[in-house]
From TrEMBL:
This is LytTR family two component transcriptional regulator. InterPro entries: CheY-like_superfamily, LytTR_DNA-bd_dom, Sig_transdc_resp-reg_receiver. It holds the Pfam family LytTR. PROSITE patterns: RESPONSE_REGULATORY. Keywords: Phosphoprotein. It comes from the Bacteria. GO terms for biological process: phosphorelay signal transduction system.
């Protein structure tokens, strides 16, 4: 499965924000999931969204934080697009070394072609230095090493409350033995990766195609056990609809 990078934009100038969105839309396997013009809004929305890469301006105007300070706090790969990158070169180098993340920059003004080429090169670096994330899960009393991106969703087993069913994009469903949603993070399945759509369902954000407010269901694709995938639709409980609608509507 091709990995789609989920991008957050942080730029105080709305025209520049629109330009960034336009330029990034030309790059394959990129999805903009968050657009912010200030750090307050950015950090307010961040817990509800799984972000892979931050694209940020270094100077956020009258904001209480700079783009550099935001990047230092979130510690995810960051691509700076700013007029004053030269003033931050030492900070950029320190961030890349100390946080051990991919960091690059481009200085304004830049042409569309320059940005696209620079960002594609940055994605290659991110891909190279970001190894796949695996977890070890217990299926039928046997430990299995599973790629997190292969997991589509987990749901409660109606017949055995202590167990869960787990569905994948590339293999048949399986039963998770003695697995608790309240202890998911201890297994390596983070809240930033999996979203609750019902008290009995935890869904990998990367596999949610869309949310239909009329049917109140999300659409995902799962492996059907016969060498192909099929669409699956999961009902979103009323308590979780506002978050799902805001994120995927």
């Amino acid at each position: 499965m091709t990995h789609t990078y989920r991008i957050a934009l942080l730029e105080d100038n709305f025209k520049q924000l629109d330009k960034l969105e336009s330029y990034l839309s030309q790059i394959p396997n990129v999805q903009i999931v968050l657009k912010s013009r200030d750090s307050d809004h950015f950090f307010q929305e961040l817990p509800n969204i799984n972000v892979d890469i931050l694209v940020a301006d270094l100077d956020l105007g009258n904001d209480s934080m700079t783009g550099m300070e935001v990047a230092q706090e979130v510690k995810i790969p960051v691509f700076f697009a700013s007029v004053n990158t030269a003033d931050y070169i030492e900070d950029i180098e320190n961030l890349k070394r100390d946080a051990e993340i991919c960091v690059d920059h481009i200085t304004k003004p830049y042409k569309e072609e320059q940005f696209v080429k620079s960002f594609k090169r940055f994605l290659q670096e991110v891909n190279f230095f970001s190894p796949p994330q695996y977890v070890s899960l217990d299926f039928n009393k046997k430990k299995n090493r599973i790629l997190i991106d292969d997991i589509v969703y987990l749901c409660a087993n109606k017949n055995e409350s202590n167990n869960k069913q787990i569905y994948f994009i590339n293999r048949a469903p399986a039963s998770l033995i003695d697995f608790s949603f309240t202890r998911m993070e201890e297994s390596g399945l983070l809240k930033s990766q999996f979203i609750t759509v019902h008290k009995s369902f935890r869904v990998n954000k990367k596999h949610i195609k869309c949310y239909d407010p009329k049917t109140e269901k999300i659409e995902v694709s799962i492996f059907d056990g016969h060498s192909k995938t099929k669409s699956d639709y999961i009902k979103v409980a009323e308590n979780y609809q506002p978050v799902i609608r805001k994120t995927f509507g």
